[in-house]
Design brief:
This protein is an alpha/beta fold. About 40% of the residues lie in helices and about 15% in strands. It contains ten helices and ten strands. The protein has helices spanning about 1-10, 25-40, 80-85, 90-95, 105-115, 145-155, 160-175, 210-225, 230-245, 255-275, and strands spanning about 20-25, 45-50, 55-60, 65-75, 100, 120-125, 140-145, 180, 190, 195-200. The strands form three sheets. A six-stranded mixed sheet has the order 5-6-7-8-9-10, with helices on both faces. Strands 1-2 form a two-stranded parallel ribbon. Strands 3-4 form a two-stranded antiparallel ribbon. A hairpin with a 5-residue loop joins strand 8 and strand 9. It is globular and about 60 Å long. The N and C termini lie far apart (about 40 Å).
Length: about 280
């Protein structure tokens, strides 16, 4: 699911990553463990529930690479309660950065965000789960919703950049320090307490859009750790999303720190050309 995608993206961008998740006693758990070991992702703090099914997500893409249908079973994530993760709070407080996704229970999201002593980044996951982050927003440094998730949280219908600007500002008033509201091919709208702006979408050769948003969030983590400003962070997100959308797999093997910075320059040049 999203948590694994985020961990993979951060690891590919050179970060030391620990994934706090819940794994069952099935074959899928063995696959996740093997994949994390291959990518250098630490699972020290992962819960093992032998009688539960490891979370699973299946999607069907249409001819344009957009998701046409998806089903998932994320019930095991409900086990990630405050009590279950209490022993991990010391590690959370020692981290340089914490990323949360809305597959976790709302109470856990607020507890972890409030208890962290580092910047917190959050991904809304889906419109059905975005509300879980409402109570955590005042503790979130960077929040990445798409237009549907932002609409669910704010009640503002996001049809284009102007609506996105209003929704992003509304999310800042709800507590998020920085908002990166993604709009697919229309680009991204960014806002904080002082400014708001939109960047238009960049050229890409779409293969599979699924996972692009997760790569965007991973790039927000990378850029936050490097002290990049909001505009540069948005470019990093767009670059990571573009690289991933051009891959047939949800986690793009082509994503790396070098490829990311190269694509950021390409997007910057493209945007500069549009301004002239």
């Amino acid at each position: 699911g999203v948590g694994h995608n985020l961990a993979c993206g951060c690891a590919q961008l050179g970060q030391s990553v620990s994934l706090m998740t819940a794994l069952g006693g099935d074959e899928n758990a063995a696959l996740v463990r093997a994949d994390c070991e291959r990518r250098g992702i630490d699972l020290t703090y992962a819960l093992t529930l032998p009688d539960a099914a490891t979370s699973c997500y299946l999607f069907i893409a249409d001819s344009d690479g957009d998701m046409a249908l998806a089903v998932n079973d994320m019930r095991i994530c409900d086990a990630l309660t405050n009590d279950a993760l209490a022993a991990s709070m010391k590690a959370i407080r020692a981290a340089d950065l914490l990323i949360l996704d809305a597959n976790l229970p709302a109470e856990t999201l607020r507890w972890a965000a409030q208890g962290a002593q580092c910047p917190v980044i959050a991904d809304a996951v889906s419109a059905a789960k975005a509300d879980r982050l409402s109570g955590a927003l005042p503790y979130i440094d960077r929040f990445k919703p798409n237009r549907i998730e932002a609409q669910r949280l704010t009640g503002i219908e996001v049809r284009g950049p102007e609506d996105a600007m209003r929704a992003a500002r509304a999310l800042c008033r709800m507590g998020a320090r920085e908002v990166y509201l993604t709009m697919g091919t229309q680009g991204v709208c960014c806002a904080n307490g002082d400014e708001a702006f939109c960047l238009p979408g960049a050229k890409l050769s779409m293969v599979n859009a699924t996972g692009a948003g997760d790569a965007f969030t991973a790039a927000l983590a990378w850029s936050r750790l490097r002290g990049l400003n909001m505009r540069q962070s948005a470019l990093a997100g767009m670059a990571a999303a573009g690289i991933t959308a051009e891959s047939a797999t949800t986690v793009a093997d082509a994503l790396s720190e070098g490829k990311l910075t190269e694509r950021m320059k390409e997007i910057e040049n493209e945007l500069e050309g549009k301004r002239q």
